[in-house]
Design brief:
heterodimer, A: 341 residues, mainly alpha, two-stranded antiparallel ribbon, 14 helices, B: 332 residues, ABC transporter involved in vitamin B12 uptake, BtuC, globular
């Protein structure tokens, strides 16, 4: 049951001899839109209704800037999930990256470039480790990555003694919180938004326009079939974990700017990324998922958090809402998959 | 073939396709090397005191892991146990509120809450067809949010009489150990001697095959999740008794979700379900406690301990993953 890059049936296909009413046409059009966008639109509408200022270009770009780390993480997680695995180590990886950047960079702008290179190398290492342990040693990926999470957390705290030292260089933080000023219409264009645009484009091209992308779908859809068709599933899995780890490094650099140095910078991000991807209709178990829907999922999650803030709910209830929506999304996806097309 | 009248049909023992002796062998090796390691550095490993400590530390995890074993044998998974432990510990201590006359009431409420969380898990997984990881993880988030929004500190308290469960001894044996032994005995009977066990192994071995053979797979899945919730609740009650009160962080701090799954896998149960034995899990729980006590002896940093745990879990699971593979298999 390998579905390579699942596509919807071509638009406008209708039985000959049936006349569509306008209402039916609208319903059909709605049906073709991924449901996550309808959910996002509804959530946005409620937010704007409660706080009209949110619709201004300035607050929208600020919102995108805040959501940037999660979007990038969701993109990386999507590769792993389509390949049929899970990556729970990204949250700990983010914390590790932020702490390393502060400790080794020590606030010196001249060191930023090699610190960034070092972080990328570190991300590569973590991704390759996750991938190799999962595919060569055949440890289920959620155990592997939970173990990696424990090891990273332990190592970081052992190294820093519980409270991170050093500081983040100003030019490193600029990436996450700075913007290009004097842009027409929106006024300011945050670097983070540009980074998201680049990441989404790169992710789309990699997943949908390269052989590698097809192999990721094939590996997740049916590992044995893929293997027998000549796909090196080990290589695909390792690459997917590397993509996820690198997205973690990217998110860490943005978060270093947005939130600054803390010993729990990445807490909970792994679960938020998985939630975002599942919102987007990807299936845990592999073979299904789309870039656009994962981005939609991440945005929806952020809008829901904003909405909770606006409505004055206690912060812990975020978890509850996240739990309800993730189950709802999974139920909906399961229902859609069971229903014959 | 005609059936011989009068001779009872002997069904094969359940789960003997994979016995638990390798896990006990590993436990013996770990015990032996810990003994050498501790004694060679001037400590004394085999003392009643230390062995009791190890056993006592195993109780909370052992209870959770017993429930997790049932769930995993049925081919499912429960990521919500850590928060179930928290919510039931709080339920018990809030309901008791220091009053000895309310002990039974508090325990009953805690068990009911645990059963409800398990029921919710089972219904979402079996009824709505959601992936077990996502379903139980979603339920865990819901419970966590509700808990943290309601309680931000230690809540309620248990009466002194009730602390017997955590600290008392009967004929030299800690009460907690007796509780664990009782629960394990019941679960062992259910899994390896009762019809229910055959059904669980069948569902874990192949859901569709089990369904076509006339097993009510949904009921079995819901039942194991309820039992797992009750086991986690017993652990929550035990921890409330030991700590004197329940708190929102008692479950997540013990990382019971990850640790219980790790113990199950270390005990030789296949994560896919359908293969493995309950006693393997118990030996793995004891093994983790022994490792813990060695860390204690060397007064290891708690962060170093976390690091060590990660390495041990990945390494051991990798060793077990290689076992039991027969014939050619695609590297999947």
């Amino acid at each position: 049951m390998t579905t390579i890059a699942p596509r919807r049936p071509p638009a406008g296909r209708s039985r000959p001899g049936t006349v569509q009413t306008a209402a039916q046409a609208v319903l059909k059009a709605l049906h073709r839109i991924a449901p996550i966008w309808l959910l996002l639109a509804a959530a946005l509408a409620v937010v704007v209704w409660r706080d009209p200022a949110f619709a201004e270009p300035h607050s929208l770009t600020t919102f995108l800037k805040r959501g940037a780390p999660l979007i990038i993480l969701a993109l990386g997680q999507l590769f792993v999930i389509i390949a049929g695995e899970l990556d729970l180590s990204v949250g700990a990886l983010i914390t590790a990256c932020v702490v390393i950047a502060a400790r080794l960079g020590a606030g010196d702008p001249a060191r930023t470039w090699w610190v960034v290179l070092l972080l990328i190398a570190f991300g590569l290492l973590v991704g390759v480790f996750n991938g190799l342990v999962t595919s060569v040693l055949r440890v289920p990926s959620f155990i592997t990555t939970l173990g990696t999470m424990l090891m990273l957390n332990g190592a970081v705290f052992l190294w820093t003694g519980g409270s991170p030292t050093g500081s983040l260089a100003a030019n490193l933080r600029q990436l996450g919180r700075g913007s290009i000023t004097d842009v027409p219409v929106v006024g300011q264009l945050p670097y983070a938004v540009i980074a998201v645009a680049l990441a989404v484009t790169a992710g789309y091209l990699l997943l949908r326009r390269t052989n590698f992308g097809h192999r990721v779908y094939a590996t997740g859809g049916g590992p044995r079939t893929a293997w027998l068709s000549g796909v090196d599933t080990t290589q695909v899995r390792v690459s997917a974990f590397v993509v996820s780890a690198l997205s973690g490094v990217g998110a860490a650099i943005l978060l270093a700017g947005l939130a600054g140095l803390s010993a729990n910078a990445g807490d909970g991000y792994e679960f938020q990324a998985i939630s975002a991807v599942v919102f987007g209709g990807a299936v845990i178990g592999g073979g299904r998922g789309r870039i656009s829907a994962a981005v939609g999922g991440a945005l929806t999650l952020e809008v829901l958090f904003t909405l909770l803030n606006l409505l004055g709910f206690a912060k812990p209830l975020r978890d509850t809402v996240q739990g309800i929506t993730i189950i709802g999304a999974a139920v909906f996806t399961a229902y859609r998959l069971r229903r014959p097309r | 073939m005609t059936a011989v009248v009068g001779r009872p049909i002997r069904l094969p023992r359940i789960g003997q396709n994979r016995s638990s002796w390798p896990a006990w062998l590993v436990l013996a090796l770990v015990l032996g090397s810990s003994w050498v390691l501790v004694n060679s550095t001037g400590g004394d490993f085999i003392t009643i005191q230390n062995l009791q400590n190890i056993a006592q530390r195993s109780v909370a995890l052992g209870l959770v892991a017993t429930g997790q074993t049932l769930v995993i044998l049925a081919g499912s998974l429960d990521m919500s146990v850590a928060y179930t432990v928290s919510i039931t510990a709080i339920a018990a201590s809030v309901v008791m509120d220091g009053r000895p006359d309310r002990i039974a009431y508090g325990v009953a409420v805690a068990l009911a809450v645990g059963a409800c969380v398990g029921l919710a898990n089972g219904l979402v997984i079996a009824g709505l067809g959601v992936n077990a990881f996502i379903a139980t993880f979603g339920i865990a988030l819901i419970v966590r949010g509700a808990l943290n929004a309601t309680f931000d500190n230690v809540a309620g308290s248990v009466p002194t009489d009730f602390q017997v469960l955590g600290y008392g001894t009967v004929a030299g044996l800690p009460v907690g150990i007796l509780l664990l032994a009782g629960v394990v005995a019941v679960a062992w009977y259910l899994m390896h001697r009762a019809r229910f066990g055959y059904h669980v192994y069948a569902v874990g071995g192949g859901l569709e095959t089990a369904r076509l053979s006339g097993i009510r797979t949904r009921s079995v899945l819901i039942a194991v999740h309820v039992l797992c919730g009750v086991c986690a609740a017993l652990s929550g009650v035990f921890l409330a008794s030991r700590l004197g009160a329940g708190s929102p962080w008692v479950g997540p701090q013990g990382a019971y979700d990850l640790e219980s799954i790790a113990a199950v896998v270390l005990g030789g149960v296949a994560l896919g379900g359908g293969r493995g034995r309950l006693l393997g899990t118990i030996s793995a729980v004891l093994m983790l406690a022994v490792v813990d006590s060695v860390f204690n002896h060397f007064e290891a940093d708690s962060f170093l301990r976390t690091l060590g745990r990660g390495v041990i879990i990945i390494g051991a699971v990798a060793l077990y993953a290689r076992r039991g593979e027969r014939g050619w298999q695609a590297p999947s």
